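Q: I'm writing up a methods section and want to include an example of the input and output format. Could you take the sequence below and give the corresponding predicted structure tokens, formatted cleanly so I can copy it straight into the document?
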Amino acid sequence: MVGLENFVAIALAFFIVTVSPGPANIAVATVSMSFGRKHGLLFGLGLSVGLGFWGIVAATGMGAILQSTTSILTILKIFGGLYLLWLAIQSGRSAMRRADDVASPPDQGRWFWRGLILNLTNPKAVVAWMAALSMGLGEEVNTSIVVGATLFCVVLGFANYAGYAMAFSLSGFMTGYKRLRRWIDGLVAGLFAVAGISLLRSAFSR
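A: Here is the clean output for your methods example:
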């Protein structure tokens, strides 16, 4: 029962962190409203692979090493901040376009890579993983519990992103997005810009 309790504690902590609004969830929701379910799911799949990578890093103990290695963490924050600013620029450009001048969606394969890059350049993901795993770690927890919980959390992460994609690609959301596209894209651009600047500031702060 101890193993089950630890497993549930890790999964619950991870679920709370994953479903909370953040750049990844905002991005998959925006992609789904803009271009539909298939694009949103591909974007979410890329996010999930990136999230899984950080899960492996945290579960193998490399997360602690990463956090203590200032140079690597700084580089990740810089790349992550710049990528968020790039997303902010893309959303800002979309907000300034007229309704009859909306850009066509990129090739489907690119959505996967965009989602992957977004989570790979997010050093906060490994911190979230370590926080979730620490909720269920104890003296009686063996490796199989950690591995099983990590794999389950990866699936949980994809379910979260898929849920966002499925929900925000419904006709009601897509219709509402078309009507309020400029306002929504402008708001998203602002959120990405704030997140990107915050990450860059943390990269250069002591």
